[in-house]
Design a protein that fits this description.
mainly beta, Immunoglobulin-like, 2 domains, six-stranded mixed beta sheet, three-stranded antiparallel beta sheet, transmembrane signaling receptor activity, NFAM1 Ig-like domain-containing protein, Ig_NFAM1
């Protein structure tokens, strides 16, 4: 028998062939998660309205395990306007100490970057944070900011 799972084609549902070990799906999911899912970057809310001549705060929520490999990272803030132009805003270099007894535990930390006051509606666009570790780069989904007059 075969079944389509998540649109990725047919997977056999019959027992494994003799000589091959049976793999617990939970174990496999854990391995896949650890291979690339130890860190994440979130940005909320997805949409904001900002008045002209006011600064905005760009949120960046970073989730990572307390491991030496992940406690040193950089956050880059930038925005992409309505015609696709990317503008760098700022960069932060961070080195987070591992609290006693917390090694290998996961933490989520919130960071933000305040922009200069928005001068015109041309500052409408999507504002991003991008986090870089030594061998991984994760970018938030961005916050769309609609700059409007009073």
């Amino acid at each position: 028998r075969c079944s389509s799972v998540g649109g990725y084609g047919a997977l056999p549902l019959s027992p494994p062939s003799p000589g091959y070990p049976e793999i617990d799906a939970r174990w496999l999911l854990t391995i896949i998660t650890l291979a690339g899912g130890e860190v994440s970057v979130q940005q909320r809310p997805p949409i904001r309205v900002a008045l002209l001549r006011e600064a905005i705060s760009i949120p960046c929520e970073v989730t990572f395990p307390y491991k030496m490999k992940y406690t040193k990272f950089s956050i880059f803030y930038y925005w992409i306007n309505s015609v696709g132009k990317k503008t760098f805003i700022d960069k932060k270099l961070l080195e987070i100490p591992i609290p006693p007894g917390e090694e290998n535990h996961t933490t989520t930390r919130s960071y933000s970057q305040e922009t200069r006051p928005l001068e015109s509606t041309s500052f409408t666009g999507t504002y991003y944070c991008e986090v870089k570790w030594s061998d991984i780069v994760k970018t938030g989904a961005g916050v769309f900011v609609l700059a409007t007059g009073k």
